[in-house]
Amino acid sequence: MAIRLGDEAPNFTAETTEGPIDFHEWKSGAWAVFFSHPADFTPVCTTELGRTAALQSEFVRRNVKTIAVSVDPLESHKNWAGDIGDVGGTDLNFPIIADESRVVSNLYDMLHPGEGDTSTVRSVFIIDPANKVRLTLTYPKSVGRNFDEILRVIDALQLTDAAPVSTPVDWVPGGRVIVSPALSTADATERFGDVEEVKPYLRWTPQPTV
Ligand code: BEZ
Questions:
Q1: Ligand 1 atom with the shortest distance to the CA of 119
Q2: What is the CA radius of gyration of the chain?
Q3: Whose CA is nearest to atom 1 of ligand 1?
Q4: Could you report the per-residue pLDDT of 3-25, keeping only the tens digit for each?
């Protein structure tokens, strides 16, 4: 069954390049970016995992752990790691799950037979510290993902969890945000100071410090 936003992220055990894990234990207390790639030793995947390694300090700063999965065997992941480091400029610094049995890929509905073969498509799950699924993305095999966008969504989720605001179209960190409809304009002004009412349902305020 498809995994929907708000669902508990299914738990699993798996072999990874950093040893066996129980997923919920591994991510305990942290956010996770759990993403699949079609195959080791392929060009787009190498750039994606290289970029994730290079951005690791940005993920850590946000209390986010990253973990990748494909249906290739553990030895293949380990042999590929050097290429990821060469291409991304940073040694592989997060685990890759070896899902030869496809148990994890099926659990997360990452196998889309219409996309050509029995390898995983480019799925992304952002999962919060309570193990709730907060974002899903599915990209085709030929299109690499934008990991700056993944960081942007994490920033937006963490901000909107911490304050009664939403982020507008094309928001980037530091940009103005939208006051929650749950807050009256008077209460919003008391809380945020500067509130601009464009429509009764659209009220801007500078990004609050949380
Ligand atoms: C790639 O990573 O370049 C790739 C992998 C599978 C299918 C298409 C592209």
A1: 6
A2: 19
A3: 44
A4: 999 999 999 999 999 999 999 99
